[in-house]
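Subject: mismatched residue count in predicted assembly?

I count 443 residues in my input, but I want to confirm that the predicted structure covers every chain. Input:
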Amino acid sequence: MTAELERLFVHLRFPSISTDSTHADDVRANAEWLKGQFEGIGLATELHETPKHPIVIARNEYEEGRRTVLIYGHYDVQPVDPIELWDSPPFEPELRDGKIWCRGSADNKGQHFVHLLGAEKTIQEEGGLPLNVIFLIEGEEEIGSPNLVPFLEKHKGDLACDIIAVSDTGMVAPGVPTLGYGLRGITCLEVKIKGPSGDLHSGVYGGAVANPASAAARLVASLHHDDGKIAVEGFYDAVIPLEEWEREMWSKVPGAADDDFLKTTGASAPFGEPGYSMAERLWARPTVEVNGIGSGYQGEGSKTVLPAEAMFKLSCRLVPGQDPDIVQQQVISHLENHCPPGVSIEIEKGHSGKAYHNDPHSKFGKAGQAALEKSFGRAPVLIREGGSIPIIQDMKEILGSDSLMLGLALPDCQIHAPNENFSVENFEKGIEMSRALLRELAK
Ligand code: BES
Ligand code: ZN
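Triage response: the counts match. Full output below for your records.
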């Protein structure tokens, strides 16, 4: 194993689960270790405290007249459950089949660590970096970056940059370099349906008292038409339609045909809005998804109960044009208006973030494309991403800078799920990509 991989393995062994307060000390220890890594390559570092998890900042000596790139990433990870489905322990990295298996390997430790290693190699071989570099690696991305916006506002002078580089997205297929020029936004809700004051005998009362589980099912079903289109009034009103050149370009992206998506997901048939390919639905159309649903008896065998309550969690993925607050309110109104009689509804608003997109053919977009081409040996494909990194649009609004998304996670990387993995080849090529990027951006 290379020395670089061994260092990544140390990074991966910290169980830095940001959402779980019992891991707060692990998150902090990870941040301190990462700060040490940046110090070790000769950068000036700071650990910024927040009400939750610290932000790691590292920079080289600022030189007037040079460009500045901010490299963003996150060292926090998702929880590991269901743990029984992992083939090896989630925080004991293993090399198998050319992949690094560990929670956080792809999302996002492996992907930002290549930039640290790229900077290190450049400094070793060239005596310094060709432009001003600021690393910002946060510990709260997986919980919606609640403390990063105030941090950006407070330090926007210090964080001023010409362009932002982010490797926290996907690559469409092995060997196919991918430049992301868009991300979907998000808005989340949690819904409680309340019926009788306590669980009831379903024989004694069933048929004459409204069942909250049935009401929840009806509400969830009311969100979509049979053909997959979203039934919430006004939902699509502000959507900026995807452009013809994008549809044309995406139809040729390797690994992005409907069949490819069916293969990676195991789904039996495409689903969704009529008139769009799966890639178009994923990258440029908004959604309403149920992320969790529950009510009544879940144990073995039957239990004749009429449950007192039901709940479900929703998230909407948003596209450019949509305002998260407006969409959240449209969904709330829809649920309130469609709630069947005999039960009450309580809705709690969750976190939100805006969609983002830029011009992949801009000066910096071309620099990103050149860096990918030089390191992977072929021209990159240009895509938008289905996932969300809300802070990217916040950085656009606060710092005024666009982001290049240089994704290195393969379609089967299983981020947020058991057996997350990161390709060793992409780790190695990623280091070269990062070096090429610094050169291209400095030109
Ligand atoms: N790295 C992902 C986002 C991502 C993954 C973008 C794949 C594009 C392709 C990030 O860590 C993530 O999981 N984001 C959350 C955002 C949320 C918690 C605010 C998401 O997309 O669910
Ligand atoms: Zn994630």
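The chain has a mean pLDDT of 98. Marking this ticket as 'not a bug'.
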